[in-house]
Design brief:
The protein is mainly beta. 8% of the residues lie in helices and 43% in strands. It has a 7-stranded mixed sheet with strand order 6-7-8-9-4-3-11, with no helix packed on it. Strands 5-2-1-10 form a 4-stranded antiparallel sheet, with no helix packed on it.
């Protein structure tokens, strides 16, 4: 299924290809828990930025490997390039339209990222 998504103000727009039933992760690390991000990692080939590349700001911290992309206008992070899967994109399920019919949310222990990151590696691989 093709989903469209974007930031709050609409300046950043993208589309992804993903199943009708979405399996995503709810991470308890500091940045994800504070922003309410629900993670859907997809291969780069399943993501297409439609507009707003010039309206994105990049934030990095700690290892500076993850590239958190924020809309310069409204501040929403609708997607980013994750440290765990640099060969893919991590989409905030809450920024998809339409919202998936069925969403399965799995807990992910991002507070102990080093111990659990390997569990995410398969998510950005082509199926």
């Amino acid at each position: 299924m093709i989903y469209k998504g974007g930031c709050h103000c609409g300046a950043v727009q993208f589309e992804i290809e993903a199943p009708e039933k979405i399996e995503c992760q709810d991470c308890n690390c500091s940045i994800c828990s504070k922003s309410g991000y629900l993670h859907l990692i997809v291969p780069k080939s399943k993501f297409k930025l439609l507009q707003g590349e010039n309206n994105l700001s990049t934030y990095t911290f700690d290892s500076a490997e993850a590239k958190h992309k924020f809309c310069k206008t409204c501040g929403i992070k609708s997607f980013y390039i994750p440290r765990s899967n640099p060969d893919g994109f991590d989409i905030n399920v809450r920024c998809l339209e339409p919202q998936p019919e069925e969403i399965v949310v799995e807990k992910f222990d991002g507070k102990n990222w080093e111990l659990h990151a390997h569990k995410l590696l398969h998510l950005s691989k082509e199926k």
